[in-house]
Structure formats: structure tokens, C-alpha cells
């Protein structure tokens, strides 16, 4: 879209989508996994409705993984400032129903902060949607394989894989998340190894297609019917 197309959209509708991602280690998968997934699920969900999807914010809060080269982390205060500026820009232009599609668990400080922003903008509705663990999508993951987490099979889609990089065959036992949260980056890497938290690294594409269909449908339902009066 160009600016005139956005202006035309706003004459008849005030909805938009803002995807949030991250750039961080994902074991054998792309460093951009969270961004690729958040943007793609947003685009596929919004396409039949014509709702604008803004480019994904590709950087997030991920200090624990800073011992893995290629990980880029924002400080929490920096991240919240960026969100404030982005939501403020959307509000200035007239968007009043904003679906934030988050693809990275470390970004959740933004979800807590959002209430503060909304209290200053009572004319606006914002939904924060963690697409991967929303009820229908997470149920589809659990029905497929209960052992699933960061950088495991549940994020291994054709569009997050790297050409020529083979996924290990091991079914990795779950790491102690309570212990992990107490560790600095070097110790976290020593505990995690390649970065997968738990489970297989890959499952058949037909399994992933079923989960993805639920994720797209669940996200679209929020765009259509998720707005408070």
C-alpha cells in the first residue's frame, strides 16, 4: 500500500494489524523465526478482510540468548518506547482497532504496559494476541505432541527452515525453565545447547499445516469479532 491507499481505507474502516517478532537463536531454524511467523499469520488472516498489515517489528526483548551470535536484543524500556511510538502513530492517523500479533514470548512486558497506553487513549481498542499459545492454536499443538516449546518442532515450518540445514532426530527432554530463568546468557547457552527447549526438532508437514490453519483462523476471528463495544 501507499499512503493514499491507507487514507482511503481509513474512510471506511479503522482496523489494522501490527505484527511483533524478534531476532534470536532458534536452534537450527532461522534467527528471524518469530518475525516470519508473526507477519505471515497476520497476512494470511487479514487478506480476505482487506485489513492493512504493517511490517513486522523484527527486534524484541531477548537478553537470555545473547550468548548465541546473531541474537539482537532491545532493553525493555527501549522496547516499550518503540511500542508507544508505533501505537501513537497509528492513533494519529485514525486507526482505532489495532490487533497486535506477537510472535515472541519475551515481548510480553508490552502486554502488561498496554493497559497504561489504553488508559490514555480510551477511544481505541487494542488486542494483544500471542498467536502461538492462543487457545485454539495451542490445543492443536498439544493434540499433535505435548512436548513442544521454543525452537522445537512447533516453530519448524517450511518458511522458517534454512536450506541445507538438517534438523536433529533427537527428542530433547524438557529443560528446567525455573532454573533457566535464573541464569545469565553464558549459563543459559550451556544448559540449552543448540537452543531447543523441549521435544523433536521437526514433525511432518501435514501436522504443521493443521496447526497453521488453526492459527490463521483464530487470528482472523479476532479481527472480525474480537473488539469490545
Automatic annotation (TrEMBL):
Keyword Nucleotide-binding (UniProt): no
The entry's keywords: Hydrolase, Metal-binding, Zinc
SUPFAM superfamilies recorded: Creatininase
InterPro entries: Creatininase-like_sf, Creatininase/forma_Hydrolase
A Pfam match: Creatininase
Entry's family note: Belongs to the creatininase superfamily.
Protein name: Creatininase
Species the sequence originates in: Deinococcus malanensis
Amino acid at each position: 500500500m501507499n499512503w493514499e491507499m491507507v487514507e482511503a481505507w481509513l474512510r471506511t474502516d479503522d482496523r489494522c494489524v501490527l505484527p511483533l517478532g524478534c531476532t534470536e537463536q532458534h536452534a537450527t531454524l532461522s534467527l528471524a523465526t518469530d518475525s516470519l511467523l508473526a507477519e505471515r499469520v497476520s497476512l494470511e488472516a487479514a487478506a480476505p478482510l482487506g485489513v492493512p498489515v504493517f511490517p513486522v517489528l523484527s527486534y524484541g526483548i531477548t537478553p537470555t540468548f545473547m550468548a548465541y551470535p546473531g541474537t539482537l536484543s532491545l532493553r525493555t524500556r527501549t522496547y516499550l518506547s518503540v511500542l508507544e511510538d508505533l501505537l501513537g502513530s497509528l492513533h494519529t492517523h485514525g486507526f482505532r482497532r489495532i490487533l497486535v500479533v506477537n510472535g515472541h514470548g519475551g515481548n510480553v512486558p508490552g502486554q502488561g504496559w498496554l493497559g497504561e497506553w489504553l488508559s490514555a487513549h480510551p477511544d481505541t481498542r487494542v488486542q494483544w494476541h500471542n498467536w502461538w499459545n492462543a487457545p485454539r492454536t495451542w490445543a492443536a499443538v498439544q493434540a499433535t505432541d505435548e512436548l513442544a516449546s521454543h525452537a522445537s518442532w512447533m516453530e519448524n515450518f517450511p518458511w522458517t527452515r534454512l536450506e541445507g540445514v538438517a534438523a536433529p532426530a533427537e527428542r530433547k527432554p524438557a529443560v528446567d525453565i525455573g532454573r533457566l530463568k535464573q541464569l545469565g546468557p553464558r549459563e543459559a547457552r550451556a544448559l540449552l545447547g543448540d537452543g531447543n527447549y523441549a521435544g523433536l526438532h521437526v514433525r511432518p508437514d501435514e501436522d504443521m499445516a493443521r496447526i497453521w490453519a488453526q492459527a490463521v483462523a483464530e487470528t482472523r476471528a479476532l479481527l472480525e469479532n474480537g473488539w469490545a463495544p
